[in-house]
Amino acid sequence: MSDILGIVGSLSAPSNTRAAVEVALDAAAAERGVDTEVLHLAEYDLDPADGRSLEHYTGDTAEALDRIIESSAYVVGTPVYRASYAGTLKNLFDMIPRGMWQADVAPFANSAVGLVATGASLHHYLAVEKELAPVLSFFGAHLAGSGTYVHGDHYGDDRTLTDDTVRERLRTLGVATVDLHRAIEDSDALSKLGPQF
């Protein structure tokens, strides 16, 4: 179990998206003393989502879903393809339960989530707010700010983030995700909004 799970929706390894998510997680661990882990979809052989209930998943899929269910807060990162988040991440979202017919657990409901998107250019900046945010709202998550978009010019040749402004925004996102999680825990109202339908 982790206090904050970084979900990396990239099938690349090494991955620009993972590098960005890890900056946020490292700051959360260093500044707020939380445990962090990374769930990188490149390392898992996930089943295609087909509507089955949670207990019918096995292998890598069951392990990935268990890690999500057992975590308290999340930083979700995705590369942007065709102006939207990765299909691998969409497939994972389609298997995560909402506390309704698939299972009686709803890991994203009333949870703090920080969002990260990466792309080759500035053109996909709106993917964070217009693509990722609505999906997490569907789950009843609380979003830490408006997320962070990172593009190719922010990286060096070795996939290291070289832009200090972006690194600081990612660090702030990681810390803010922890702070939001703690605020939700302390608030009766924030901790029971969940999805409406």
Question: Could you describe the 3D structure shown?
Answer:
This protein has 197 residues and is of the alpha/beta class. The protein has one domain: Rossmann fold, CATH 3.40.50.360. Helices cover 36% and strands 18% of the residues. The chain has five helices and seven strands; from the N terminus they run βαβαββαβαββα. The chain has helices spanning 16-32, 59-70, 87-93, 127-138, 164-186, and strands at residues 4-8, 36-40, 73-81, 84-85, 112-119, 142-143, 148-151. A hairpin with a 2-residue loop joins strand 3 (73-81) and strand 4. It is globular. It starts with a strand and ends in an 11-residue tail after the last helix.
Short characterization:
By secondary structure, the chain is an alpha/beta fold. The protein has five helices and seven strands, in the order E-H-E-H-E-E-H-E-H-E-E-H.
List its salient traits.
197 residues, alpha/beta, Rossmann fold, 7-stranded mixed β-sheet, 5 helices, 7 strands, 36% helix
